[in-house]
Please model this.
Amino acid sequence: MRRKIIVAAILLVAVIAAGIGGFIRYRHSEGYLIGVLAGPGDSNVTLGDTDPRVSAMNELYYGKYDPGPVVPVLLKLLDDPSQSIQTNAMKYLGYFGDPRAIDPLLARFDAAKDSDAAKEVANVLVGFGAPVVQPFIERLTSPEPQLRAVSAAALGWMVQGLFTTDRTDRNAAKAAVERSAVELLIPLLDDPVADVRVSTADAMGRIGDQRFLAPLIAGLPMQADQALEVFARAISYYRDAAVAALGPALKSPDASARRSAAAAMAAVADIATYDIASVGSSYVEGARAALDQSMQGKDLAVGAGGYEYYIVRGNRDAVDFLKASLDAYGDQRMATWLLNCGMSPLEDAAKAWASARGFTINTRTQATRSTYKWGGNR
Model:
């Protein structure tokens, strides 16, 4: 009798275990997960919790399930009332990389009301590679400025490979841009919307087509603050060609042209701070020599444009030069750098400059101050 009870208990445990195992397998089956994905979700999800549909997306992707039946459900979720679900559906459509998602995502891109919304979609689209190059090129002439701006940016991302490691896609993007987009991008440097101009300049730097260099330099004097920084950085991508092309601008009779050219020359010199292979290169040394020569000639417009270079180089001879440059041609951005560089005479000069003009400039946090440090890159 005792043996019968033991056998029955073992059989019962086996049946329960099999049932639990079957239920667990069912909970992780494709059919169950797609059912969760297509379901209503959880309206009671609180901050820090995860909607079960997002968990299902994650498991369907990382479990390497067939995207065939999954993608149509994800596409429907692009219109879900939950912004979080929409965002995650886009993200996982990008992960799956199914071409059926391209046209719906392009429609969502076209419907974007601002640059942030357009960038969110573009970040996903660029992962599809070559098939989306031409659609972005076509949108460079869109009447909507956010589409012009983000399409230009996306082409730059694709050529540089920011969102893909596929060399074939990068090459296809570069070939298509060189063939069809150069003449469309150049006029965008004169676009009435600043975001379009800035995004285009940034893309031109990433793309690296030599036909962009002259228009970028020509557009420099019209830029200020963040836009000038982006144009200058874009020009720096051209390295030796940039140094050669900026040389005449650095000697222009127009102070504004010299000031903006100095900002770009300083960006070339700055390459050595983040690319160790460029240390001692002809372009870095050429940029430094041009800026040093301008300081020796007491060209205050160049000092006001290239102040970042003079600060991080930390040459004591530059202190009086920078003070005079600030008074003659400086702006709030330059004053902020001087205030935070750690060199007392320059900090005092920046405070006096701001006070005389009714400006307020702020001392940066310790983490940020390293950017402005006097002698930070000798």
Q: What stands out?
A: The chain has 22 helices and no strands. The radius of gyration is 28 Å. Confidence is low (pLDDT under 50) at residues 17-28, 43-49.
